Amino acid sequence: MAAPILIIQMQRMGDLILTYPLSLWLERQFPGHPIWVLAESSFAAALQRVSPRTRYIGADQTQAVLSEHFHLVINLSHRPESQELAGRIQCEQLFGGYVRQGVTRIHGQWQEYRASLVHNNRHNCFHWADMNALDVIRPALLAQTTWPLPRMVQPDTRKVGLFVGASEPDKRPQPVFWAELIRVLERQGLAPLLLGGPAEVLLCREIRALAKRPVASACGTLTLDQLAFLGQDLALLVTPDTGPMHLAAWTGLRVLNLSMGPVHAFETGPYQPGHVVLRSTRSCVGCWRCMYERPFCQDAFAPERVGRVVREMLRPGQERLHGLHLPGLEILFSDRDTHGLYDLRGFSSRQRASQVVSSFWRAFWLYAFGVGSRTDCAATAQTLVQHYDALAQRMGRDAIVLLRGLAAARTGNTTLMLDWNRFSVVLRPLSGYVATHLSNYDFAPQSLKRAEQLIEETLALLSEA
Question: Which among 115, 189, 224, 296 is least buried, having the fewest CB atoms inside 10 angstroms?
Fold first, then answer.
């Protein structure tokens, strides 16, 4: 039998579900190699019936993987114990973080890039599920993959799920929002159903009290696989960014994602195409951690507005969603780009400055990492210069400073190159990655050369535009 392939994902349930596409791609690219997944036992066992064909190993059963020789190991977990374990496993090839001889390293340019996003993801336009795979899976296989659209329900299906919880309070609406949304949906002839795990039992109780009417609830009563099967009878799931949202999208239930708080829809939105993301148009949207005393991005999510989106989603076609005017909010659709990678598409023909900058960096990293073309990258640079020349000039000036810092690093002064967040936000995707890359390779000559190439290419693209 061929040596197995191991995925290490010891984070939350949603992170585990986002490894499912990788498992399917690995099965296609490496036929005959069994796929193993090391994960938290509680999540792995509950999701076994809806996951790809893999062998799950509990995170507490490390001896089973230490005694095996693997063809490939992909560590997607940033927990210290997962990195320690990855460094001890016998394998032919390893991607992700690992520790050997007391030193932490990252193998894989996309895994390096992902590490550089910590507190620096404002302009990231790559989904976690894609970044899980890009170091390993052939671009052609990604581009050829077609994901099914959410299933179409019968017009008389009126039950709408409301998943009320999230991993952090700032990532979900307040109880009064859900209570009012229940009233809005009932006026539309819909039947709301409150959903949540054991942690949401008290929250559901508060929502029902605020609603001042009988409300169906399955909070705290369903296992994860039961929740997935219940979704077969729902017309739609309204949910913040949370693990059950990914479960719903994976199992074909259409999702309306209320993307609020310190989440980034490009990174963790519903992965399959055909879902709807509703998020604030505030300039701080997509943050790693909220910088304010409270998440002001929640303010635009009025229940009446969300109810209008639900109503139009349940009608045939998407034309009516195009006509909705919701100041302070934008409606986005999960889709795919020409490379088969996750994309979010909106209705506006004119992109905001932050979106143009993000588009440039998306094209830049695809080109830099061998997936995209320089032609596509140059086109986004031209758009940036034409519409937001001041930002392009600031990016260029900062890139020159970064290049000077690289010269200083060659003489042993690495301070500037590691201080990535001293640069303007528009250049931090580059300064952050360069800092991660140089640190990962201890400023070795090859890493300095690679950093120089990236900075000079950025300057060339801007000057040619």
Answer: 189
